[in-house]
Amino acid sequence: MRRLLFTALVTAVAIPAAAQAQSWRTATMSRQLQGNDAVRVFVEYGAGHFSVRSVDEGLLYRMSLRYDEDNFEPVADFSGDRLRLGIEGTRRNMNLKGGRSGALELELARGVPMELDLEFGAVKADIDLGGLALTDLHLSTGASESLVDVSEPNSALLASATFEVGAAQFTARQLGNLNAERIQIDAGVGSITLGLDGRWQRDARIGIDMGLGSLELRVPEGLGVRLRKDSFLTALDSEGLVKRGNVYESLDFDDAERRIVIDLDAAFGSVAVVWIR
Amino acid sequence: MTLGLAALAFPSAGQAQLREIVSKSVSASSSATTLGLEFADEGTLEISFENGTVYVDGDAVGTYQPGDELDIAWREVLGDAMALENGPLTEMLAEWTVSTDIAATSGVAVALDAALQDALRDVGVLVSADDPSFEGSFEDRSTLVRALIGSASRLGVLEEALAGLDSEFRVHVGEDVVVPEGSVVEGTMVVIEGSLRIEGEVRGDVVVVGGALDLRDSGVIDGEARVADARILRNAGEIRGGLVDVLAEERDVEAELRDRIREEIREEIRSDLRNEIRNVTRGHDDQSFSIMSPLRPLIRGVGGVLEKLILVFVLGLVGAGFLAFAGENMDTIAETARKAPGRAAMVGFAGSFLLIPVWILGTVALAISIIGIPVAIAWLPLFPLAAALAALLGYLAVARNAGEWLADSSFPWTGWIRKSNPVFTLLGGLLGLTFAFMVGHVVSIAPFLGVFSGLLFAIGSIITFFAMQIGFGAVLLTRGGRRREYHGFDPDAAWDAAMSVDVDDDFAGASSTGSTGADGGEDVHDA
């Protein structure tokens, strides 16, 4: 079925479309696993639809792309333990108008210890980090609509996860599955939703530095949460939290099996805590 | 020295096997397709169909017609290649052959098929203990090396890699070697310019120069594994004597040297750039002599005048738009700027200072509520845009006043400004407001008058600044020209007021002052 689909796709792009101003190219690139102990992955993508999944077919990565070949070219460079993927511009004055119609679907090897660095711009991103063995994570996004899900627990210990969010709508789910000791979120302008569900295997610290916008913290019942707020003109809806001195804590913080300490530094906006079952 | 050179050059136990694909790249567009393969032994293959030409590894091997049978057949192959990986991909490509119909009409199809099969089916060498043809020994290593390799570039590396090893060995040059699982090879194995896959056991040292070493899970090397300018594809087995990278030290030195050279080049570029920027900012470029040098002041001066004329023309067009669609608003703003320029300027100054605080506070006020956030996103760009529009409208209104003043004046060359036509007065005013700049540009053409041109530019800037402030203030005072600050003389209203005068009271007042006409006139005017 998959072969039929690809054949149809490759044949379909052969039909010249006079109305199209851009020249679209589809590409699939992959590399076999070759006893890779660990790998550092850098992904850059400008505009379009972007997705990340894990793959378990003896592959280090598989990347499927649709891009404007007049302005962009794919990058797939593996050297030593360094893997660089994505699309980069070929001209100084690129036509980004149709860039949003492009797409990059990336599959990365399950279970291979991995430092992952994702950078994307005006992108609609759907990222599932479940199944990946992440030892370091850095995600940077510009003006985007991003959904980051961690559908399965990370099999490696993640020392640090950093999310840099520009002007964006950013949603993260099941952050507990990241198995991270520290999560840092730097947000500019926009709407941020952080789902703290998932399986927390250790206590963790979350740092949130937010400029202007709204933040929703979705906290599962039973998880101990302590919130330290250092903010200016920020409204806090702290339902379910009690104020003790300068911090807000969940009622069962001292007895909770796993505890999360959140350091919130916000300038303008609103913060809401929502409890989920 | 006893050595079977013929055996070394021609593998006797060779057999065809499919090469392992480690990386693939398949792409297709309406005008081109590309298949790129990378093999485990570092070999590569690239087949492209591009604009009517077929390329194999960058070399044109023939032509095709987009949409012809070969193109379609190849796209079908690529469709399958996109979906398949590793073994199944290799098998699919190896099994693919051009149909007899296509082969009969297209020579390039046959060449393409051959290139693909050649690349996929590699001649490897299976080595086992029962295979004596590869055995040899040497006493004079240098002689051996020179006999084996025509290329002098590897000699130094090879000598280094072989230093201190046993004199009993097996040598394979330019071929891929496999030690199958369960087999045992006695003595040192040397592979030059080829890959060595070990699934069995080597009871000795292993040397790989300029190729690749693939040590599988079941593979064992009893002695040392030495690699020189070679890749380690997999290191999953056991190396009892340890792994030695012969060129590690050399590579480190090279890398250090490369970094140093790179840093020096970078520093040189930075220095050049700095000098370039310095020259440009100081205008040193202009000092260098060229055939155009004497004309530069003239070109610059005339260019400056033209630039201002274009600006006047563009502003005139914008002003004409305002006059057409918001003429009354512009009248009101111009009237306020004319009757109370000082007040308008003060309001303009204050408004300019408050712009940024108002912008930030507005943003904050909207952002505090979640509902307000979308409005805030609109507010962020729209507020500065509205302020810029207000300043522009105000400046044009002041320009129109200036045009009317010039029309009334007795200056020469202002006779063409007709007050009856607001577009003419607007253009005249704009020329008047930018006049100092234009004269400054003209003066700058003459040598030694830089001070005067600078003075004129300064005067032009001051005029522009005040015109902007007065105009912006007038826009604020009149709420964008919607609220009239000063009412003009209305004869109907004056007549009504005159008729409603209480004659008795006025008469009484007139008796006491001895005058009626002047008082009555003032009353009417005040009304």
Task: Describe the protein in words.
The complex is a heterodimer of chains A (277) and B (527). Chain A has one domain (24-276): Pectate Lyase C-like (3 Solenoid), CATH 2.160.20. Helices cover 4% and strands 62% of the residues of chain A. Chain A has 1 helix and 17 strands. Chain A has a 17-stranded mixed sheet that branches. The model of chain A is unreliable at 15-20 and 94-98 (pLDDT under 50). In chain B, 56% of the residues lie in helices and 18% in strands. Chain B has 4 domains: 18-121, no CATH class; 127-246, no CATH class; 298-477, no CATH class; 491-526, no CATH class. The longest helix of chain B is centred in the middle third of the chain and has 44 residues, at 296-339. Chain B contains 18 helices and 21 strands. Chain B has a 6-stranded mixed sheet. In chain B, strands 8-9-12-15-18-21 form a 6-stranded mixed sheet, covered by helices on one side. A 5-stranded antiparallel sheet of chain B has the order 2-3-4-5-6, with helices on one face. In chain B, helix 11 crosses helix 15. Chain B is an alpha/beta fold and 527 residues long. The chains are: A mainly beta (277), B alpha/beta (527). Chain A binds chain B through residues 2-11, 13-17, 23-32, 34-35, 57-59, 62, 64-65, 69, 74, 76, 78, 189, 191, 212-214, 233, 235, 268-270, and chain B through 20-33, 38, 40, 66-67, 71-72, 75-76, 78-80, 82-86, 233-236, 363-364, 367-370, 373, 376-377.
Quote the beta fraction of chain A: over 45%
Please count the beta strands of chain B (DSSP E, at least 2 residues each).
21
The biggest sheet of chain B amounts to:
6 strands, mixed
User: Helix fraction of chain B?
Assistant: 55-70%
Poorly predicted residue ranges of chain B: 1-15, 132-140, 504-527
Measured by residues with Cβ under 8 Å of the partner chain's Cβ, the largest interface is: A-B, 47 and 43 residues
First and last CA, distance of chain A: 40 Å
Which structural class is indicated by helix and strand composition of chain A?
mainly beta
Mean pLDDT of chain B: 77
Order of helices and strands of chain A: HEEEEEEEEEEEEEEEEE
The N- to C-terminal Cα distance of chain B equals 130 Å
| Broad shape of chain B | elongated
- What gross morphology of chain A would you assign? globular
The protein's oligomeric status is heterodimer
**Count of DSSP H/I helices of chain A:** 1
Main β-sheet, spatial strand arrangement of chain B: 1-7-10-13-16-19
- The Cα radius of gyration of chain A reads 21 Å
CATH topology description of chain A: Pectate Lyase C-like
Strand count, sense and barrel status of the largest sheet of chain A are:
17 strands, mixed
The CATH architecture of chain A is 3 Solenoid
